[in-house]
Each structure stands twice: as C-alpha cells, then as structure tokens.
Amino acid sequence: MSNYEIVKREDFSDVTYLLEIRHPMMARAARPGQFVIVMLSEHGERVPLTIADFDREKGTVTLVIQAVGKTTRQMQRECQAGAFLYGLVGPMGIPTPPSHARKVICVGGGLGVAPVYPQAKALKEGGAYVIGVIGFRGKDLVFWEDKFRAICDEFIICSDDGSVGLHGRVTAGIEAALKKHSDVDEVIAIGPPIMMKSCADTTRPYKIKTMVSLNPIMVDGTGMCGGCRVKVGDEVKFACVDGPDFDGHRVDFDDLTMRLRRHSREERMALEHWEKGCRMQKSIDRAVGAAAGK
User: Fold this and answer.
1) Is residue 87 located within the same domain as residue 111?
2) What is the domain extent for residue 217?
3) Is 273 inside a domain boundary?
4) Which of 120, 117, 172 is nearest to 144 (CA)?
5) Residue 290 in this model has a pLDDT that exceeds 60
C-alpha cells in the first residue's frame, strides 16, 4: 500500500473538490507555482495538478480538482478521506520567483482561484500590498472567499451572472482595481487560457507586468511528450519544465488554444468508455442485489 493518504476531502460544487494529502517531504519542499503528478492506481493516467496550498507543520499538500475528464471524475468518485493515492510525485516546475513588487493584483478565475492563493499569500508575507480578484460563473461555485479576504489588503469577487460581487468577468475586477490604483507593479493571473489571455489584453495598454500560469496545457508533466510546447515571444518553451509561469504579454495564446484541442477526441473517448463501464457495473450491482433479496 502506498503512503499517500488522503486526510481530508471537501466538495465545493458538483464538479469541484479538494483533497488534502499527507506527504511531509513534499510539504517541506513545496513552493508557490509548483505542481505534482498524481496517479490514482497502478495502471492509471498520470495527471499534473497545481499545488493549491501546503502546510509544513501538518505535512500535507492540498489539491483543488475539477471533474472534467475520465481520471478526475474517477478521482471524484473514489478519493475519500482515508483512501490512498497510488502515486504522488513532486513538487515539479519552477517555483514562482520572489517578487519585489510593492503592489500586486492576484487574479484567479474558476479553478485558477486555488493555485493563485499560495502566490497571493507569499506576496503578502513578503510585504506587498495585495489586491485579490477572483471570479466564478455564479455564487454557488464560490470557494475560499474567506481565505482570500484574510490575506488580501483589498478583495474583489466577480460573477458572470451577477449573483455575487461585481457583475462581470475578472477583467472587470482588474479594471476596477487599476482605476483606483495607478501604481500597480504586477498582475498575476491564473485560470482557463481564454481568461488569462483576456487579463493580458486588459493590462497590455497599461504596460503592467502580467504573469500567467500555463498549467492547463500540461500532459505528462516532464517535458518528454512535447505536448506542452508553447510559443513565448520568439522562443518555444515547455510549460512543465520551463514554467509554468510566463510573461502573459508574450504568450501566443492562439497557438496554445489550438494545442489544447489536439487530444480532445481521445479524452472524450476515454471518458465515454469509463462512463459505460460505470453503468455496466451499476447494472450488475442491481442484479446481484435483486437476486440476494429473493
């Protein structure tokens, strides 16, 4: 049996859930911006996931996961407190370098709210004035609002449907913060690629340094597959070994978006195959139960 015990499980919505995993060595080594590779079972997929938090005293690392594909949905079903992961490797990737910025806007959209938290926390501990901007589709998807309010000097929450906070996307929150603060040194944005592109487009006229995290494009997490190639200015980088943090004003988001679609067919087929197996197993369980009741 592996030693990667899940000590806590928390569900934020029907698709988003948190796993806190005991791994003292990883907790001591983890830094903001890094990620891990998770394997649910011996023959399972290797899934790169960004570290959302870590507790050196408790010896745990925290992952926030969205159940969108075959493996993340299987993990949602099977990963409960007391269960064990087969594999957990990391921390990987280049940690976010220390920033000398005096005033920073930390932006998280959807699942990107989790990985931007340790960066905002580190900046605050380093003496920066931190403005938090987080966004969700609606109020029922909001998580970690209290954690952000506790570390941010100012906090803006946005929602697509207007059910909580500022009505609009996170770019509306960025604009509101920049209107109030003309001395922002840096913006850090983490979320879906289209969101990060919009954030970079919003800050470009202001010529404010804008860093994005390209974790969504990772496949194997080691640079060997080449699936995470991304154009950054005139260079080709590998998101998992050269990043995941890059200058958002230099990232070719159009190329990145096209690359993300490359494995969509295989991902859809894997999910359909797994769901079919789940339905078959449920039918077998019902038949066994009915026979036992006779």
Assistant:
1) no
2) 103-260
3) no
4) 117
5) no
